[in-house]
């Protein structure tokens, strides 16, 4: 199958991006999606994203994890597809698009995309971690020595033992100051550590606010792939006006024969 694709990255979280407005992509072929994402036998990516037409918004985002299965919301992927939509001439500086968790709005200035996330009203706080859904399910745990931390083995173990077959994404966090933290994430569906996770850092920022570890309304999150910002408004219900802010770029384009 001849297929034109684009390769994108948002703070090192990388995606195969495909313009599927003609509807020609074999959407139920799990093996094909995972093959395209394979780093040795394919293009190589943490996930694959289809841009499709929408009747109510500028476009629609369909996201697959690297294992070939449809994923839940991908924050970094959403920032990348906004950049892609501008490249295709679908939008200029503002986007409204449909994703698996509902409608999102985004703005783009240069290569920096500010993405509005869904409100979060339920954060489960336990002794050693928080659990919340920011479009994708996330476990957030504070650790010491994050740089040397065994994110792969600890993340995989928690993902399977605590969350069963459904799984969750596992974020490990070390504070630098009240509003700046380092984050490393083990991603469900990639089944490995990725260089950053957008819904993950969003979950981290809200977990810090919920547990009183930060008192402002903006957190800077340093991931192995770069820096993201999350801002939010705390209400009596939970959190609203949540924005995930950071860069995204096209890396290359190509054809799959
Ligand atoms: N990398 C993503 C998260 C993608 C979703 C996840 N792997 C899942 O299906 O659980 C992000 O940037 O949010």
Structure, described:
The chain has 257 residues and is an alpha+beta fold. It folds into 2 domains: 3-114 and 248-256, Roll (Diaminopimelate Epimerase, Chain A, domain 1), CATH 3.10.310.10; 123-246, Diaminopimelate Epimerase, Chain A, domain 1, CATH 3.10.310. The protein contains 4 helices and 17 strands. The longest helix has 13 residues, at 75-87. The model has no long low-confidence stretch (mean pLDDT 97). The ligand N[C@@H](CCC[C@H](N)C(=O)O)C(=O)O binds next to helix 2 and helix 4.
Brief overview:
This protein has helices spanning 30-37, 75-87, 151-161, 198-210; strands spanning 3-10, 13-19, 47-52, 59-65, 94-99, 102-109, 112-116, 123-125, 130-133, 137-142, 169-177, 180-187, 192-194, 218-223, 226-234, 239-247, 249-256.
Can you give keywords for this protein?
about 260 residues; alpha+beta; Diaminopimelate Epimerase, Chain A, domain 1; 2 domains; 17-stranded mixed sheet; 4 helices; 17 strands; about 45% strand; globular; binds the ligand N[C@@H](CCC[C@H](N)C(=O)O)C(=O)O; DAP_epimerase_AS; DAP_epimerase_DapF
CATH architecture of the largest domain: Roll
- CATH topology type of the largest domain: Diaminopimelate Epimerase, Chain A, domain 1
**Biggest pleated sheet:** 17 strands, mixed
- SS content category: alpha+beta
Could you tell me which ligands this complex binds, including any ions or cofactors? Answer: the ligand N[C@@H](CCC[C@H](N)C(=O)O)C(=O)O
Q: Oligomeric form of this entry? A: single chain
Query: What is the radius of gyration computed over CA atoms, rounded to a whole number of angstroms?
Result: 17 Å
- Ranges where pLDDT stays below 50 over 5 or more residues in a row are none
- Which bin fits the share of residues in helices? 10-25%
How many helix segments? 4
Through-space gap between termini: 6 Å
